[in-house]
Design goal:
Layout (H helix, E strand, L loop, with lengths): L10 E7 L2 E6 L10 E7 L10 H9 L3 H8 L9 E4 L10 E8 L6 H17 L4 E5 L15 H21 L10 E5 L5 H11 L2
Parallel strand pairs: 2-7, 3-5, 3-6, 6-7
Antiparallel strand pairs: 1-2, 4-5
Helix pairs in contact: 3-4
């Protein structure tokens, strides 16, 4: 039985597509009360920085096992490498956790981030999740120069295109319809107003 903090964090709407409601919530991947909480992770943090923010909170909730798995090489966090945790401890609110590798932080670009969101959406649907949350975890690795990435638009493009592809597949009778009904983007509480506005403006 999970015993994570149940207080309701700030939540702002983005839009709805293919019966999936999109929003932003001021929580980290360890606190996301969803069927599948998705976080991203680089092969290492930016020089001179250490893991922080929501990713650090997730690592701590997992007893330090996430960073330990990366150190031992069991999970290297290479581009699009995935780690699925189906039995998270009580300190994690989500029923399952997916970690997606982003590779080298110095080489991060919009295409890598877009592919990560596509992987997140597809894996959430394959997992049969009704709800998912996605944390890019870019700032948590000390990658702060992200204006050129246009992150809200890129992440929405990846999520929505993958959702449409899965919906089309179901319409062709080649897969069951996606059960997903709610997709949340994790943001830090101080940034929720600006992030909510940016996501809403980028929603098609």
């Amino acid at each position: 039985m999970h015993t994570a903090d149940t207080s309701a964090p700030p939540r702002l709407p983005i839009g709805t597509a293919n019966q999936v409601v999109f929003d932003v919530v001021a929580w980290g991947p360890a606190r996301a009360d969803v069927d599948l909480s998705v976080a991203c992770m680089f092969e290492h943090e930016m020089p001179g920085t250490t893991m922080s923010g929501g990713l650090l909170g997730l690592d701590q909730a997992l007893g330090g096992q996430l960073s330990r798995l990366r150190t031992t090489g069991a999970f290297r966090a290479q581009e699009m490498e995935t780690l699925l945790i189906t039995l998270p401890p009580a300190a994690v609110a989500a029923r399952a956790v997916l970690v997606i590798g982003l590779g080298q932080p110095e080489q991060l670009n919009a295409d890598t981030l877009r592919r990560a969101t596509r992987v997140a959406m597809r894996e959430a649907i394959r997992h049969g999740a009704l709800s998912m949350a996605f944390a890019p975890s870019v700032l948590d690795a000390g990658h702060t120069d992200n204006a050129a990435l246009n992150m809200p638009a890129v992440m929405l493009d990846g999520m929505l295109s993958a959702l449409q592809a899965e919906t089309d597949l179901a319409a062709l009778g080649l897969a069951p319809p996606p059960s997903l009904r709610h997709c949340t983007f994790d943001v830090g509480a101080p940034r929720i107003a600006s992030a909510g506005a940016a996501f809403a403006a980028a929603f098609p």
